[in-house]
Amino acid sequence: MQTTLTLQTHAEPRTRPAVEIVPTPAAKRLLDLVLSGIGLLLSSPLWMVLAAVVKIEDGGRVFYSQERVGQGGRVFRAWKFRSMITDAEKYVGALQAAHNDPRVTRIGRIMRASAMDELPQLWSIFAGDMSFVGPRALRPGEIEVLGSGVLEPLEDVPGYRERCRVRPGLTGIAQIYAARDIPRRNKFRYDRLYILRQSLWLDVRLIALSFWITFRGRWETRDAKI
Predict the structure, then answer these.
(1) Separation between Cα atoms, residue 82 and residue 62, nearest integer Å
(2) pTM higher than 0.90 for the full model?
């Protein structure tokens, strides 16, 4: 199983050529605005319920935020409902959640399985930092620990620059079809496939599949989600 983490160093950042951005089609942006706007309105009562249960469970903060890499390499701040214990990364760093991760709270397991913890990202979509469909937004400086123990910066993985050409997404081909624990370089192949074949119809299909996975509560499964 591969593990991902973020390492903070004091070394000078490596200079990279600018990423050629793929313009977001007007129809795709309109779909994002309409769906995220409707989603924010309809889910507002659920936000209050989730905020209450997260707070009641351990008294910690309701939301959790991270810096993420967006289109063209621009960094933005993404928000989620907190699904792990407070200060979950204090001693172990930014480790990706593993199967039956003890850091995940009881309500957090429910939220993660149904993707309810992702609801605040509807605002990121509405604001234009994200899209409903696209490559998953990664953290700056994220590193994957390969099975051999080798540390591999994700920025060096083939396909990383290509996926930065488009806005990151809440869902996508990799999120739906790729096994959860495969190396990121394999997931990047799904992302590159989306970039090559993206269309409004493909977005609608992937969004519909995502709603079905959410309804079944299968986002955290290690088996096929659909």
Answers:
(1) 6
(2) no
